[in-house]
């Protein structure tokens, strides 16, 4: 084995880049499926009635999505890469069904604009997470506590209907998911240092779990920015 430091550093960078490329490819595929599904759903009166005409159906979809997130996150080490990728694609499809509701609330122009803003913000933050020499490990517990906080605040606001609390949650949520994007990118990069594409199943599973992490960061960031920037549809 070549022990030359320059060679080892080059090999490490190659492995990191390989995993990140795979992660981004899966993430973009998932976003594409969700976006196309949402667009087609909102243009299908039958499907819209099926989903939003029955609150039980929407509840089932949300529970199914949550279950898939936990299944992939918690069981990815035990399942085959093909199973994990299938679950991820199915999750992207189901999430597209529920995301179709944004077309009922916001104008197409504001959705497009917010998506571009989200893409630029996500790209810049992810690039920072990849290139920074700063260890972002300490951010993990802080960001997780912040995430729990905004979830609790959002639930409480369902009953309070406070506009001020809603804005606070939205702005803090943007900061938290910007931080999570950088944190998760660095975490994925470090996972790439420990494996190679030749690792087969392990490589495939890590690609999916990484794609899920960044997919969730992107979608949540998009929804929060849409709440802030989005223009409502006229009645």
Number of helices: 9
- What is the CA–CA distance across the termini? 69 Å
Chain-averaged pLDDT: 88
Which class do the helix and strand fractions yield?
mainly alpha
Number of individual domains = 1
Q: What is the 3D shape? A: globular
- Which consecutive residue ranges, at least 5 long each, have pLDDT under 50? 6-11
Written as H for each helix and E for each strand, in order along the chain, the element string is HHHHHHHHH
Largest sheet: none
Q: Kindly provide the radius of gyration, computed on alpha-carbon positions and rounded to a whole number of angstroms.
A: 19 Å
Helix percentage: over 70%
Beta-strand residue percentage: under 5%
Number of strands: 0
Quick rundown:
With 235 residues, the chain is mostly helical. It contains nine helices and no strands. The relative contact order is 0.17.
């Amino acid at each position: 084995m070549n022990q030359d430091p320059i060679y080892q550093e080059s090999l490490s960078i190659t492995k990191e880049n390989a995993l990140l490329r795979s992660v981004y490819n899966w993430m973009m595929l998932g976003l594409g499926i969700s976006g196309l599904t949402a667009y087609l759903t909102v243009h299908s009166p039958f499907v819209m009635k099926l989903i939003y005409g029955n609150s039980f159906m929407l509840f089932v979809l949300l529970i199914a999505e949550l279950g898939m997130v936990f299944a992939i996150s918690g069981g990815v080490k035990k399942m085959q890469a093909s199973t994990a990728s299938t679950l991820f694609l199915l999750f992207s499809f189901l999430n597209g069904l529920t995301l179709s509701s944004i077309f009922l609330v916001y104008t197409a122009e504001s959705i497009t604009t917010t998506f571009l803003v989200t893409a630029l913000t996500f790209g810049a933050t992810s690039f920072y997470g990849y290139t920074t020499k700063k260890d972002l490990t300490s951010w993990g517990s802080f960001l997780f506590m912040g995430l729990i906080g905004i979830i609790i605040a959002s639930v409480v606001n369902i009953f309070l209907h406070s506009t001020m609390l809603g804005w606070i949650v939205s702005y803090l949520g943007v900061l938290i998911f910007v931080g999570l994007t950088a944190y998760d990118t660095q975490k994925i990069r470090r996972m790439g240092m420990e494996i190679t594409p030749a690792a087969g199943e392990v490589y495939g599973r890590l690609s999916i779990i990484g794609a899920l992490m960044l997919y969730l960061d992107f979608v949540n960031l998009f929804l929060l920015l849409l709440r802030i920037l989005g223009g409502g549809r006229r009645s």
